[in-house]
Amino acid sequence: xxxxxxxxxxxxxxxxxxxxxxxxxxxxxxxxxxxxxxxxxxxxxxxxxxxxxxxxxxxxxxxxxxxxxxxxxxxxxxxxxxxxxxxxxxxxxxxxxxxxxxxxxxxxxxxxxxxxxxxxxxxxxxxxxxxxxxxxxxxxxxxxxxxxxxxxxxxxxxxxxxxxxxxxxxxxxxxxxxxxxxxxxxxxxxxxxxxxxxxxxxxxxxxxxxxx
Length: 212
What we know:
The protein is an alpha+beta fold. It contains 2 helices and 10 strands.
């Protein structure tokens, strides 16, 4: 065993000595130079194989010791960082003869303006119908009670305007009092004896940047 180890050591010393031999500078030694170049190429190939073997062995040993490879974890995006600009996830709060309420979740998005594309139906008096919009922020706990702050409130349509506000297609633009995180929007359709109804599969909300 010792003789074998000595032989391997001498063989590697021989290869290293060949690798560092000076290159011939005369044309008559061209054949010797080609042979030397071939030997050096083989030595480089052997060194590369040995390096690759020890590198793989080390990685395998590291995996066995620590149980797993090193993993770089990236921070999961928070709801504020998600790039969403259009929402269609409507929920029905209530529907009645005079009034119907709906809710659309925004998912804690930082907004300064909202575009509402509302498709609705009603058969009431157009001089008495209107739409109420309320924008809610993230729930907060105050004195042990959970409240939902109202970030904005507005009304479209007024009495005796002689215009159909509830019914048909309407696009409403609303600028928030200040840039804030919006949790959801509540839409109320009011039409006395008009059975107001929001067409959910056509209506949607969209992010609007009024100052761009």
